[in-house]
Amino acid sequence: MIRDTVPSRQGFTLIELLVVIAIISIIAGFLVPTLLAGIREARKAECSHNLRQVGTFAMTYSGKSGTGCFPFAGAEPSRAHESLNELLALYTEELDPELFKCSESPETFPAERDEDGSYVLGEENLSYAWVERRTKPTVRRPLASDRYVDGFEDEDGVHDGHRGGMNVLWTDGSVRFVLTADLDPETMLPPGLTQ
């Protein structure tokens, strides 16, 4: 007796495989931009949180230092890292070096703690700008911000940052995302801040 047998089929045909690959490509085309936008938003939120934390310590500093002002290095205009080192002089143990680094600034590396746990900020390990003059918490104005918007170019080259603007910490402790169009066109910073 001879049986009619259908040969068993194993695997996919080339057409079926190409259809599956095409479907996966289309789905990835929709998902990848959404995932990248989500990552950018998460980095923006992390940066906002870092600025808010620094602002909380700066507000406490203004009351504790006896000056009634936010940390300031003394010379006018003062550089951001010089003024923030004044804050570190009071709160080195409480302030993590990672707070001074924005995740959208890959060229900035966090400061390293030495044997006694202290560290000093320099231009190379600070992602934020700070007020350039002595400032009291009684007037609402920008206190700190990111150093760069994405694509900002100066004598040091092109810098990374948030797309379309930057996080700005205000003297009342709030953080708001400010669009590039609302920044000083020459420095690409909020007025009164310095790198």
Notable characteristics:
195 residues; alpha+beta; five-stranded antiparallel β-sheet; two-stranded antiparallel sheet
Task: Describe the protein's architecture and organization.
- With 195 residues, the chain is α+β, with helices and mostly antiparallel strands.
- The chain has one domain.
- The chain is built from two helices and seven strands; from the N terminus they run ααβββββββ.
- The strands form two sheets. A five-stranded antiparallel beta sheet has the order 6-5-2-1-7, covered by helices on one side. A two-stranded antiparallel sheet has the order 3-4.
- A hairpin with a 2-residue loop joins strand 3 and strand 4.
- The longest helix is centred in the N-terminal third of the chain and has 51 residues, at 14-64.
- The chain is elongated.
- The termini are far apart.
- The model has no long low-confidence stretch (mean pLDDT 89).
